[in-house]
Batch of 2 targets.
Target 1
Amino acid sequence: MNTASKPRLVHSAILMLVLSLFTLSVARADSPLEKHMEHMKKAYKELSLGLENPQESNQAAYVTLAETIKSSALQARDLVPELAAKLPPDQKATMVKSYRDAMDDFVVSVDGLIKNLKDGKWDEARKDAANLKNEMRDGHREFRRE
Ligand code: HEM
């Protein structure tokens, strides 16, 4: 190899590296469904933290956090999980239906949590929050790709 072609080779290698890093980052970008989930996670974490030592003066903020969980869940409900999108049409329809049913049940549970927060029933609200976590685990086990 002559010495003039060496810098060109290095240049191409760097270009390939930059291109593959870019492709990887695009491939890993959050889907809209994941964005709603991330939003839900942030609100859930904040609420759980608040409920460890609830303050009456923060009651309205707790309700707002639970309402954020609800609106994120409702938006996620109308999207299609990546796992379902990859299935043949008939299996996809079945999975999307059961995903939506599970999300509807989840929203009913969030409504229960909102009510208990509005009534200042902190012990009940903590139980509701723990149940949401169980529903999350079941939903992820069934509908989230590995
Ligand atoms: C408090 C409740 C929940 C939280 C905090 C939560 C959080 C998250 C987070 C952070 C992600 C993205 C990162 C990852 O894949 O780990 C995710 C993904 C996902 N979650 Fe949830 N989740 C909750 C409830 C649920 C429920 C009830 C369901 C289904 C009924 C569900 C279905 C999914 C699916 C399908 C994905 C993958 C996204 C995709 O396929 O595009 N999640 N969730």
Target 2
Amino acid sequence: MPSKFSNKRHVAFKKQSGLCYYCGSPMWESKPKEFANKHKITRKYAARFQCTAEHLLARCDGGKDQKSNIAAACLFCNSTRHQRKSPPAPLKYKTHIQKRLKKGKWHPKKLRHLVSPMISKPALIVSIEG
Ligand SMILES: [Zn+2]
């Protein structure tokens, strides 16, 4: 369903070169099969890398649906954050994920080839201010 919101997600996706705001893995927007083939992973694994829009400042905290408040995150990172009782702040959560990634404890071993470039390049910082 095309909407203004998904357009913002798309803008964030482009701005981040298609990489997850949190874990830095590549994501897909509409073609999971191509994604799976390209990265030689199963469709099931590909599912977790669907691009989702993340509010850097939650709506309940006054965050708005504006471009500067939207980051693109993979489904896995996004849903894991929201599974918590009180979701951590995005930057805090990102630091947590980066630590886990370095220990190889975020995505399964089989997916490490997708995410590893981020570890040597932790400079991928997306400005919250936009
Ligand atoms: Zn992610």
